Model the fold of this input.
Amino acid sequence: GFPDCNTAMWIDKKGKLWMVYGSYSGGIFILQMDEATGKPLPGQGYGKHLAGGDHSQIEGGYMLYSPESNYYYLFMSFGGLAANDGYNIRIARSRNPDGPFLDAEGRNMTGARGNQENIAPLGVKLMGGSEFVSAVGDGETPRGYLSPGHNSAYYDAKTRQHLLITHTRFPNRGEGHSIRVHEMYVNKDGWLVASPHRHVPTIQGKNIVDSTDVIGDY
Done:
């Protein structure tokens, strides 16, 4: 079975419709869908297994194609979603919409199954718990995330921006959560990396950051 099942419908670069679904317990699968009816094409069973299974803590599958890198990226949330349970977002990639999806070390995500010890090394971590601490005299209080995950993602063809949309909890704020958007970039090796700061619109040039702002104490 697929308790707490998560689904994501998406269209590949050739116009074919797919659904990524699954969650804890059974794993994450992909099905090719009928564009006319929105139902799975016949003869696929549960579909093709992409990741997870054997009650592994992997859920929240989502897919994004980047025309900049020509890769399909499979997003997954590892761990538990509570504030202290270590939810984190990981990705794997493929040239094909239905995989296989490999991490940066070339490991197939179908091997990410079972207990935490088995799944911990796999996938490329995109975002997890973090905190920007305040030094004595700083005007800002510490800021950070706890257990970000269960994301979606979007490529804006007009602006050529990759955007990550996720929910997150926060240090010392219990289980309350909010939605955050972070811009992602494709690095020289073709992997998505996320900006550590949330994305906000540029307002009349007032919040533009350039190289002169890099200098300082970290």
